[in-house]
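Subject: Membrane protein structure
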Amino acid sequence: MKANLKRSLFNPITLAGMLFFIASIIFTAKSYLLMLTAAQLVFVPIMLQLIFEVKRKHIIFTWIAMLSIFLLQVVPSSTGQMVLAFIYVLFTFFVAFYGLKRFFNRGFTNWAEISIDIGMMYLFIGGLWFFAYVAKIDTGFSPLITWLTAIHFHYSAFLLPISLGFFGRLHDSKWYRLIVPIILAGPMLVAIGITALPLLEFISVLLYIFAIFTLIVLAYRTSFASTVQAVLIRTSYSILGITIFFSLLYATQNAFGHWFVSIDFMLRFHGLFNSILFGMLGVVGWVLAPPETKQEIFNFPVSQMRGTLKGAGKRKSGLVDDLSVFVNTKTLPKTIVDFYEQTDQYQLFASVKWATWFKPLASCYKIISTQLQQLNLPISSDLTEMTFKIQAVDPTVDGRKNPRAWIRRVKNNIVFVAIYSQHETKGRTYMNIALPLPYSSMIGILQLEVVDGILILSSEGKGDPGIYLAVGKTLFKLPLSEHFLIKETGSGSLIAQHKMRIFGIPFLQIEYKIIQNIVSAG
């Protein structure tokens, strides 16, 4: 722990930032301006060093950005100040770009890392507002409000999400996953509320209060690397629990005109508490023992098929050769096993049911899907027969083990082209399904289990399961999930239910009737 502290506080970036900050105290005319300067010169650079490995180019660029912030205090020329502020904007842009890159290398998985990504992206907005303040750009607000917005995006939108992400590396629960999106949406909701909808600002602050106090409770229930770190982080969050009420009073004033709180009061108490106590204590707390990420690298095989289906060959009888490699088939009815291993001996009927809220989007997408002949589902919920064929796919083209394409049609239109394969991770075999799209593929990794004679396939779960988008060498996890339930209703007869969600909200359900061909049954 002492080694971490020494390494983080006594390195070229941190030492330079502290020296520039001390020098800035001498030249800054208005002391409250130092709250933002502290974030720019000390807090932001230290937290960035905890996120990624600092290389020589990072050190040089950060030095230039910090020097620019210091020189702003001493350069009298307005043009010179604009140039220096623009250099800092470039610094925040590259931080945001790195955050975006981190996000696209992973996608919608691991709320702790998403929080860090969003925090890095928010910093660029803070940089733009800072530039607007220095350049005296008319933002529609007073210069002081413009400056306050810049400081808001450095503390509430950068430091807090980064701290929240580090905390998520230590603690994961349903409550944590609930409050992260609330806290991440907070800065934008407050900004919109201040700009146009004061009532929205009031509501967003109420949600923020709920999230902050939930975070405080979780922090007191979480074990940290040391007692000192626990005290610092818990105190940092507790300070937010106090200062957030100042924000509520201010939002109430804007929305209803009651409980007047002046800007001067917000600067003296809200700003000072957040910068010195929340910012400083939180940064030092994480410096003591920065938690390691728990994000696993995706290392399962991914189809190289892009655009249209290529390398299709002879007919195959089933979606899989042997269902027993996925589950214990002795616990399943024979018809379910037979359907997966002898799929071509069955007829398939489907009823597509779009959620009401999603129907306008589905209708618009239908225009595109008809041209793509992929994910081309009917809009009507009428029971419709889907004809199909299964063809082997050249593994040298696809890149996975023993792939086969299940091509489904409704009349003359292709509905799905899904290329089935499988892979094993840590002793468990998963279905690995690819749907070729223009310049990309949608990848579905499903885990199978048997419950009371019912086969369940799901993209939800820890590890590999999920729905991904593969573009080039990038694999991005989408905010989608799917859940299949297959049940025998009689000899040679099955029903299946396919549910899909986006961000946890249901938007599609497909009901299948699966019947064995009479000739095959005979």
